[in-house]
Design brief:
This protein is an alpha/beta fold. The chain is built from 14 helices and 13 strands. Strand 5, helix 7 and strand 6 form a beta-alpha-beta unit. The structure holds pyridoxal-5'-phosphate. The site of pyridoxal-5'-phosphate (PLP) has 13 residues, from helix 4.
């Protein structure tokens, strides 16, 4: 029997983090304490009133197909929330609800990108952006950013990278993996550069509710002229804001014409996202928001604890991120430390540092290479203060021991 897979899979990279997470799982199975700094989801439960709404919806018969792009009631709630938070009128026919924000992005890839198209993605990037572009035969154009710039894409760098082949630019603010977020003036310049080009600006705002201190979260949509808004596509969802990762509800906000195209794509794959989860999402968006604020406050405390403790580890530096729940630490100062299990006997590369911290301290963090940023590790603080304190104390002890 021949088992020939489609060639399109040849270009998709297997996850660079797989080896580390598989090893973490194996160590946990052996009974080792593993500090879960690799996670990409809130450790909180979905708010009770949202869970109750799902139970009620089940009994009320939310068990059938809905409209492909989501119920009108949900799209109305999303449009109202977007109008409220972004200050730009949004109508239900501009909204397509999908099986998570990742699916919303995948639908966009199918609807928009063709072989020959370029999609600009600043690094560090969320792992799925370039892979989805490759899967549909288009070309990701990665632009490196610097820590000094807060890992933000410079408007001049964007202007230089745009070509007639550019179909879209994907920004994530606040960012996974860096936690960096675009301040108003910076984003305005990006929007202005984009206004000169016939390309889409896709902004992933899945972490928009998680910004700290006095940082002002601004949507690119709010900054664009009415004409330029048609080329801005917003990605959002409930996964991070309402601790609803397992419910799989995310959406795109775009023009009615593109929304129709996304509806066609989705109608031939998943049909509607789960009816029950849609019903619960309406209550999440329209109901009390105090749990969102409470979760954000907890993340804010953990952010400070995580970053300040990371900074006490000799050889590690870390900028204070504006949002999301990740600290992106520069670990190049640990290269060269002796470790018997290292290939050359000395730590060399972020993958090896990640493995060292996992084996010697039980800290599971994600190597920056996975996000196009070698030399860094992503530490998620979507875990308890106790885990952050104990895990980083173990990491520091391991580093001090290796330093001798
Ligand atoms: C930047 C970013 N976008 C999108 C997603 C996908 O979210 P969802 O759970 O809605 O598919 C994630 C999840 O990790 C993310 O970090």
């Amino acid at each position: 029997m021949t088992t020939r897979l489609a060639q399109r899979l040849d270009v998709v990279k297997p996850s660079a983090t797989l080896a580390v997470s598989a090893r973490a799982a194996a160590l946990r199975a052996e009974g080792r304490t593993i500090y879960p700094f690799g996670v990409g989801e809130p450790d909180f439960d979905t708010p009770v009133h949202v869970r109750d709404a799902a139970k009620a919806a089940l009994d009320a018969g939310a068990t059938r197909y809905t409209a492909v792009s989501g119920t009108l009631e949900l799209r109305k709630a999303i449009a109202a929330q977007s109008t409220r938070t972004r200050g730009v009128p949004c109508k239900p026919d501009q909204v397509v609800v999908s099986v998570g924000a990742k699916h919303a992005l995948f639908n966009l890839a199918i609807a928009l990108y063709e072989p020959g198209d370029e999609v600009i993605i600043p690094a560090p990037y969320w792992v799925s952006y370039p892979e989805q572009v490759r899967l549909v035969g288009a070309t990701p154009v990665v632009i490196e950013t610097t820590e000094a710039d807060g890992f933000l894409l410079r408007p001049e760098a964007l202007a230089a990278a745009l070509t007639p082949k550019t179909k879209a630019v994907i920004l994530c603010t606040p960012s996974n993996p860096t936690g960096g977020a675009y301040p108003r003036e910076w984003l305005q310049k990006i929007v202005d550069v984009m206004a000169q080009h016939d390309a889409f600006l896709i902004v992933d705002e899945i972490y928009a509710s998680l910004v700290y201190d006095a940082f002002e979260q601004v949507s690119a949509l709010s900054l664009a002229s009415e004409a330029a808004r048609d080329r801005i596509i917003v990605i959002d969802g409930v996964s991070k804001t309402y601790a609803m990762t397992g419910w799989r509800i995310g959406w795109s906000i775009t023009t009615a014409a593109i929304a129709k195209a996304l509806d066609v794509v989705q109608s031939q794959s998943t049909t509607n996202p789960t009816a029950l989860a849609q019903a619960a999402t309406i209550v999440a968006l329209d109901g009390p928001q105090d749990s969102v604020r409470a979760m954000r406050d907890r993340f804010a405390t953990r952010r400070t604890l995580m970053v300040e403790t990371l900074r006490t580890i000799p050889g590690v530096t870390c900028r204070m991120p504006e949002g999301a729940f990740y600290a992106f630490a520069d670990v190049r100062g640990l290269y060269g430390l002796s470790w018997a299990k290292a290939r050359s006997g000395k730590l060399d590369g972020d993958l090896e540092v990640a493995t060292f911290l996992l084996e010697e301290a039980g800290c599971a963090a994600v190597p920056g290479s996975a996000f196009g940023a070698p030399g860094y590790l992503r530490f998620s603080y979507a875990t308890s203060e106790q885990n952050i304190e104990a895990g980083l104390a173990a990491a520091k002890a391991a580093v001090l021991k290796a330093r001798g």
